[in-house]
């Protein structure tokens, strides 16, 4: 396993397993399979509704808790000083653990400053080993990093070969904030798994398109959390530590960057309006 050392010294696996859109009944089985394949970073969120499944799998896995890296995220309806701390405590209960390795704010909306103050308190109290954000563009990252007491340690954003987040990545690197990718396979958009460039490169290495895409992001220092409900695919996605891309490979993939979202564009007014509707109508998650 390769690791990214966060600026506070915590070591975070550069490859993990995400459980977004896995329903609660399947989560325990999937996480147990992932841990059996060698994954030690497991990424969930309050909004996914499957924290309990993750916690159950962790308890049944037989792997010591300190060998696992568990991430969750606070949903926007739980933002606000006091509310966020209560939701963190509830996440800990659902996950069956007395600490999280990383807690993120899920979106850059609502009272994220009040929520972040609770993250800082949770960090100082030892409830979380690292804190950060998700879906924060470079301007929000610069804002929060300038005025918060404790700078974010991680920012998790949509990142894949079609949107490589170069500007945001550079800002994160300048601030020593780890860049984590959600949807590293672009949710299959643009014919991802049949892409001719990725296919040609993968054939040259005897690897899959998915393995090449993960290796490319990891070479940039990006943490990746691919998801699959099939153990065979989990094993394939984990088998990325025994080959290297050439400079020519990396140059070809770099040119695939269209610098725009293909999954959920937080800069699109229609997307933002849809999210606002969700936030207004959803009950608190915790």
Automatic annotation (TrEMBL):
<feature type="domain" description="NADP-dependent oxidoreductase">
    <location>
        <begin position="21"/>
        <end position="256"/>
    </location>
</feature>
<dbReference type="InterPro" id="IPR018170">
    <property type="entry name" value="Aldo/ket_reductase_CS"/>
</dbReference>
<feature type="active site" description="Proton donor">
    <location>
        <position position="48"/>
    </location>
</feature>
<keyword id="KW-0521">NADP</keyword>
<feature type="site" description="Lowers pKa of active site Tyr">
    <location>
        <position position="73"/>
    </location>
</feature>
<dbReference type="GO" id="GO:0016616">
    <property type="term" value="F:oxidoreductase activity, acting on the CH-OH group of donors, NAD or NADP as acceptor"/>
</dbReference>
<feature type="binding site">
    <location>
        <position position="106"/>
    </location>
    <ligand>
        <name>substrate</name>
    </ligand>
</feature>
<dbReference type="InterPro" id="IPR020471">
    <property type="entry name" value="AKR"/>
</dbReference>
<comment type="similarity">
    <text>Belongs to the aldo/keto reductase family.</text>
</comment>
<protein>
    <submittedName>
        <fullName>2,5-diketo-D-gluconic acid reductase</fullName>
    </submittedName>
</protein>
<dbReference type="InterPro" id="IPR036812">
    <property type="entry name" value="NAD(P)_OxRdtase_dom_sf"/>
</dbReference>
<dbReference type="Pfam" id="PF00248">
    <property type="entry name" value="Aldo_ket_red"/>
</dbReference>
<keyword id="KW-0560">Oxidoreductase</keyword>
<dbReference type="InterPro" id="IPR023210">
    <property type="entry name" value="NADP_OxRdtase_dom"/>
</dbReference>
């Amino acid at each position: 396993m390769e690791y990214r050392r966060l600026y506070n010294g915590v070591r975070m696996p550069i490859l993990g397993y995400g459980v977004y859109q896995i329903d609660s009944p399947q989560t325990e089985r999937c996480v147990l399979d992932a841990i059996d394949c060698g994954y030690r970073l497991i990424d969930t969120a309050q909004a996914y509704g499957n924290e309990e499944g993750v916690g159950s799998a962790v308890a049944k896995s037989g792997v010591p808790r300190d060998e696992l890296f568990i991430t969750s995220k606070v949903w926007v309806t739980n933002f606000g000083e006091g509310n966020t701390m209560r939701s963190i405590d509830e996440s800990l209960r659902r996950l069956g653990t007395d600490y999280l390795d990383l807690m993120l704010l899920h979106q850059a909306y609502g009272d994220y400053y009040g929520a972040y103050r609770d993250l800082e308190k949770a960090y100082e109290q030892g409830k979380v080993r690292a804190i950060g954000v998700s879906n924060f563009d470079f301007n929000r990252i610069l804002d929060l990093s300038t005025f918060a007491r404790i700078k974010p340690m991680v920012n998790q954003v949509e990142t894949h070969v079609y949107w490589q987040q170069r500007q945001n990545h550079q800002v994160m690197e300048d601030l020593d904030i780890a860049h984590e990718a959600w949807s590293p396979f672009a949710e299959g958009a643009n014919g991802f798994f049949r892409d001719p460039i990725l296919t040609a490169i993968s054939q040259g290495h005897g690897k899959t398109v998915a393995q090449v895409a993960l290796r490319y992001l990891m070479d940039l220092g990006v943490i990746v959390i691919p998801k699959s409900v099939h153990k065979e695919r989990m094993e394939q996605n984990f088998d990325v530590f025994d080959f290297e891309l050439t400079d020519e490979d990396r140059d070809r993939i770099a040119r695939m960057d269209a610098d725009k979202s293909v999954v959920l564009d937080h800069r699109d007014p229609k997307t933002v309006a849809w999210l606002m509707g969700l936030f207004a109508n959803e009950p608190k998650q915790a």
